Amino acid sequence: MIKQLTRTATPLALALALSGCMSLAPKYERPAAPVAASFPELAASPATTAAASSIAWQQFFADARLKQLIELALANNRDLRVAILNIEQARAQFQVRRADQLPTVGLGASGSRATESDDSIRTTYSAGLAVSSFELDLFGRVRSLSDAALAQFLATEEARKATHISLVASVANAYLALLADDELLDLTQKTLAARNESLKLVQLKYDNGVVSKLDLQQALSLVDGARVVLAQQQRQRAQDYNLLTLLVGQPVPAAPNGATLAGTMLAELPAGLPSDLLSVRPDIRAAEQQLIAANANIGAARANFFPRISLTGSAGSVSSELSGLFKSGSFGWSFAPQMVLPIFDYGRNSATLGSAKAGRDIAVAQYEKSIQTAFREVSDALAGQATFSEQLAAQRAVAAAEAERFNLSDLRYRSGAASYLDLLDAQRSLFSAQQAAVQANLLRLQNQVTLYRVLGGGWTTVQ
Questions:
Q1: 87-98 pLDDT per residue, tens
Q2: What is the CATH number of domain 1-26+105-136+310-340?
């Protein structure tokens, strides 16, 4: 019995040894990065600061409430959940392709009846282990498909990391926008209160015949204008809150008092070199894995031009009677190789190979574009890092000057040395300057978050 099993297993072992001996896929070479060797930095990067990709988001963001919101988003956000499930699906597909490289062995039972030359009927029953249509992968077709599935799986994993990084940055930017909304609401409410007080004074002067109705209408217009801005700010805050709720994936917990946009500080980040992006940007790594998969598909397409050999075999009990199965001396085996060489396929294999090569060229272009996009994103964020701080300082200086101008105009108006028109102009200018200062600070902080994201920060987690 052991000798019979040995004779049966020998052809199968030889088939496995021959399977996957070669691959027709082109040798993969990473394309050269189609960008400059350095970023067009407008300001020197801090030399003592760690690379963004090595800074965990728990360290980059100091605000305790923001950390809580990011943790909730990573646990509940549906986009990230879909990205994780895509990994599970890609892993299963890779396992299917990998399993194709090995024979599938199962229990089989069959029965057949056939006429003989003397018109007698022969009946045969068999039961045992069976291998059905195992492809002997001499030219690497199955192996190439497995390599492509593996690359697709790795690309999906990188896509999840990119979604993770993007989610961290999106939550941070939405939170900063909410803090800016709170500051603008507070500013608008104070402005509205001040204009109401000014309206009372103008109304009193109008009732006593000191000012004209034109001054009164201008004061009313100024108050109504503040109410318009207040309604706009309330709507904007509600929309930003709804966005944050969507990102977090559940109702946003109540906020403790104390956090302000003006009190939020984020670290300056060094740019590094464009070549660093190839290893720290998961979207670039995902594009490269897609290129590797497309390269492997060419090997599978080339193998279609060569003979495809499949093996079918079985080993077990064979008997002419059903009751005779598994009795002593009933052992039998079969081994049936089959080879198919394509001759006339009406250009199908050539078209498949052409499609695979075009897919590889598309993947190269997409990989190069992902590098160029990353280069531009980092360059834009660096330009912002170099200029937003100066813009904020200048805008705050404008707001301080407008505040002083308003105070002087108010004193002159109350003393009768200036017209109400001068006071109105000073009020409008002050309010606009204060709003612009808040917006400039928001843009500066959001640019730092963006720079952190585009440099690959946000994936590293504290262990």
A1: 888 888 878 777
A2: 2.20.200.10
